[in-house]
Amino acid sequence: MKKLALVVLVSASALANPPSQEQQMNMMLSMMESMGELDRLSQCINLPPQRVKQLLRQTYTDCGMGDMMADEPDPAYETCLQQSIVRHSGLPAARWQECETDDNDGQDDPLLAELDALSERIGEREPTAAEQQQMDDIIARMQQRGADDMEQMVKGLIAGSQGSESSITLPLYPQAQLLINIPAQGEIEIGEQAYATLPGASFVTTDSPEQVLQYYRQQLPDYKLHRSSLAKAGEVALMQHLPAGFDYAKDMGRAFSIAHVYIQPASAAGQKRLPGAKTLFFIYYPPAS
Prior knowledge:
- This protein is an alpha+beta fold.
- It is built from 11 helices and 8 strands.
- Strand 2 (about 185-190) and strand 3 form a beta hairpin.
- The longest helix has about 35 residues, at about 130-160.
- The radius of gyration is 22 Å and the shape is globular.
């Protein structure tokens, strides 16, 4: 059941509070649906997609979301997943294991196979201009596929986040659209340093960065205004507190453990999510008690 254990890209604990775990489950299932994983499992196991989705929900409800930041899934957790999905589906474990895929071996990747064959043909010599162009074309297609996969993943995260606004403990900007909400504390590694992170959510709005900043200065009067030394025009943070010598760009790891709102102009990607968007902002909020 390694596939089920590795598919979740957010850190979660089986002991997470119920709203957080439910939200993470919805996010994960939406992501699997967007990336075609539910359809793949459905075709392989010969069950309707909605039945597969129901089985996965029952399985993750039984076993929790596990620690997805671990280098390898916990064997006990994998055993729980396997036993639960077998129990709920009535299908033997071998049937599910046949549908497992190893995303790391690349054996069924035609682009990687094409690149390997070309590299083997070239060997130690310098590639011809035509061979170099062929190699560049293959790499470009692999990069595009990666970008497409990332886009599908983001769509899944956005879909799974909708309706979770009640878990956000700081004020919500009235004219904003929620993008992604990760409602559980976690950990991020920057360089070789690990930092604890608060729950966080991202939003877009057609209002200006100045309007968003004005709203949050009124709503959070005790928060401190902070502009990083490397901030671009329109980028600003409102921090619950500012450690001595703090600079957001240089101390981003520490920033994620402090409740704050970070505001910046919307990029083309933000405008794609919400036509006419002018502002993208992030809220890092204390977990609900």
